[in-house]
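Email to the structure team, subject: Peptide methionine sulfoxide reductase MsrA model.

Hi all, the expression group asked for a predicted structure before they design truncation constructs. Nothing fancy, just the tokens so they can compare against earlier work. One-line instruction: predict Peptide methionine sulfoxide reductase MsrA, return tokens.
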Amino acid sequence: MRSLVLRVVAALLMGAAATACSAQSSPAPIAAPTTAVPAPATDVAPTTARTETAVFAGGCFWGVQGVYQHVKGVIDAVSGYTGGAEDTANYDLVTGGTTGHAEAVEITFDPTVVSYGTLLQIFFTVVADPTTLNRQGPDRGTQYRTEIFGTTPQQTDIADAYIEQLTDAGTFPAPIVTKVSALGTFYPAEAYHQNYLAENPDSGYIIVNDQPKVDALQELFPREYLSSPTLTAVD
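Reply from the structure team: attached below.
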């Protein structure tokens, strides 16, 4: 633990903590979850489709993308913006918190390998705290809200039902504030935001806020965990 803290402090002092998400991080790892939340009682019905798409917002997109890149069956995971207009879908404007966008990740997956319900279970277990409004870790603002963007009516219904299931079970100590919305348009983020966790493992921000999520994925979802991340192509 002491060596990990020293790595974080060194990274922060060298200015390696962040170029986007908050650098105001305490130099100590976040507490990782110790148990997985219950799986959804209802999942998307099996189809013959080889690919489907899910879009999740769970705070800074570096960690969200980084987690899903380690999930078997995920073909691609792209950091981006959704919930606002095209002409303001860039980091310089989104970071102000006034464009309506959320930092989000578009996940293309093989439903014969991993189901939409499992992706949701991973989201609520290791990706985000669904009880904090417009805040995840050190990052604050509407762009860091938790929101599930359904790409089909069935996805929207299943996400709504899952939140109701977790609420009725008292899974979390506070009310779930994660929204469920139909997806509008997803805008990929700038190239320097893509694959950020995989390419910046010594970043203080990553060590403190995001690597513990990947570690929790490996611990709590061993059958779904992929040791080598599936990186997105960057032009």
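The mean pLDDT is 91. The radius of gyration is 17 Å. Ping us if the truncation boundaries need rechecking.
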